[in-house]
Design brief:
Layout lengths: L2 H7 L3 E5 L3 E6 L2 E6 L5 E7 L5 E9 L4 E5 L2 E3 L9 H13 L1 E13 L8 E12 L12 E6 L3 H10 L3 E2 L2 H10 L9
Parallel strand pairs: 4-9, 6-11
Antiparallel strand pairs: 1-2, 2-3, 4-7, 5-6, 5-10, 8-9
Pfam families: NUDIX
Protein name: ADP-ribose pyrophosphatase
Keywords: Hydrolase
Amino acid sequence: MDDAHARKTAAPRTVYEGRYLRMIERGTWEYAERTHATGLAAIIIAVTPDDRVLFVEQFRVPLQARTIEMPAGLVGDIHADESIEVSAVRELEEETGWTADHAEVLLIGPTSSGSSNEKIAFVRATGLRKVGEGGGDGDEDITVHEVPRAQAAAWLTAKMREGYELDAKLWAGLWMIEHQLDGTPRE
């Protein structure tokens, strides 16, 4: 085994552990892991019956800025055996006040493969119904935006110009509203 391979496959060593994150050292690599939940987050792609895309706005401490995101949350942070789909619908309702009759996992992949082992699941929520106000749990201060689908990209660009941080996954989510994963238009 060469030295480069040995450094990448060395036994992991925890160098810090807090309530929600731990820092791991493995050879010359350092990365973060979640200490609870499954290490998987769900981003929810949701379009209301009147063709409006659901976005959430909130202050994110690491960025010290307000962000625009699609609704999202950790899988298994409330109930360890909760499925991705159930977690996604729960988070959608908590953050936006909308629930869904159906949730479909479209794609799972790493969020930042050089600094974390966390993965994200893109989940399409359909059969939406308004059931509450949203706004997040007690620790969150979420503003819900319902933006006409045809204007979503322009609205996001305007928010970026206003100084909001935009989660780059927004653009993938918008693409998935209009397309199947193979690139064909969605009907």
